[in-house]
Structures are given as structure tokens and as C-alpha cells.
Amino acid sequence: MPPSDRPTVAFVCVQNAGRSQMAYAFAQRAVRERALEDEIDLLTGGTRPADHVHDEVVRAMEDVGVDVGDRTPREVTFEEISESDYVVTMGCSADDVCPAGWGGENRDWDLEDPDGKPPEVVAGIRDEIEARVDALFDELADGT
Fold first, then answer.
1. For residue 67, what are the contacts with CB-CB under 8 A and spacing of at least 6?
2. CA-to-CA distance for 70 and 117, rounded, in angstroms?
3. Residue in 38, 26, 42 with CA at minimum distance from that of residue 144
4. Element housing 106 (H / E)
5. Which of the residues 24, 60, 85, 98 has the least number of beta carbons within 10 Å of its own beta carbon?
6. What is the distance of C-alpha 70 from the center of its chain?
7. pLDDT tens digits, residue range 31-47?
8. Nearest alpha-carbon partner for 136 in 112, 102, 94, 105
9. pLDDT given for residue 103 in this prediction
10. Which residues contact 8 (CB under 8 A, 6 or more apart)?
């Protein structure tokens, strides 16, 4: 994908199978609802992506009407990260994702990994991600 003049927000984790997928899905919704499609680009990926989105994440997102069951975790490249204006990591030890080479702003949300957690814990993580994405897009909307 060629670089654009629009800011890019990247949601990055190690496996790209839980937290970053939820954040990306909520960000896609925020972009649509706020009519920012022509103003902000979104990206998600992992440093060592899993084979599939965690089942408990798929179920938790279904509970709020968001389908992530057809998504496949993907590897994020150094180039994608370095060209992103905002890189949001999820509190995972993404050692391969060193902020030293980034041109943009890094935010670490320090969220618990939902993999293998009971539904009520995953729902709490999901709700925290949704609130953080909404707050981020409130901030970005004010600056666009």
C-alpha cells in the first residue's frame, strides 16, 4: 500500500490474535461512525502472528455485535511501523517492536492478554479496549 498524507494508526501485538484485533475492529467502527475514512488510515499486525484470532476474543466481540471470526492475524513490518503516526502496543512484550526507529508516537496500553481467560475477563478487556479506542479517536478527531 503506498504511503498517504493521512495519519496512520497501527495496533500492534505479538500474536495479533486478541487485543490488537479488538482494537482494530473498534477503530474501524470509530472511523466509519465519525466519517473519518478519508482522514485516517488503520493498520494491525503482530511480530509473531498466530494462526487465528483467539476463540474467546471472537465470542466476546460477537457479544457486542462485532464479527472478527473471519480475520487472520498478520505480520506487521518494520516499514509499516516506522511509517505509522501512532503505534499502539497492547502491553505485550513485543520485543521485536522497538520504538527507537519509529517516526510517530508510541502508546502502550498495558492490557492483560485475553488468551485462555474466562468470558467475564475477556469482556472486561474488550470493554477497556473499546473505551481507549473511543478516547483515542476523540483526540484524533480534534486534531484532524
1. 61
2. 21
3. 38
4. strand 105-108
5. 98
6. 16
7. 999 999 999 999 999 98
8. 105
9. 66
10. 40, 41, 42, 43, 83, 84, 85, 86, 104
Phi, psi at 99, each rounded to 5°: -70, -5
The DSSP letter of residue 93 is -
Q: How far is C-alpha 143 from the chain's CA centre?
A: 20
Q: Which domains does the chain have, with CATH numbers?
A: 8-139 (3.40.50.2300)
Are 102 and 87 contacting, i.e. CB atoms less than 8 angstroms apart? Answer: yes
pTM (two decimals): 0.90
Beta-carbon-side half-sphere exposure of residue 118 (alpha carbons within 13 Å): 1
φ/ψ of residue 9, rounded to 5: -110, 120
Q: Which three cell numbers mark 99?
A: 520504538
Give the 3-state secondary structure of residue 29.
Answer: helix
Distance CA 73, CA 48 (A): 9
User: What length does the chain have?
Assistant: 144
Q: Which of 26-30, 82-86, 103-107 has the highest mean pLDDT?
A: 26-30
Report d(CA 131, CA 136) in Å as an integer. 9
Checking if the pLDDT of 144 tops 60, the result is no
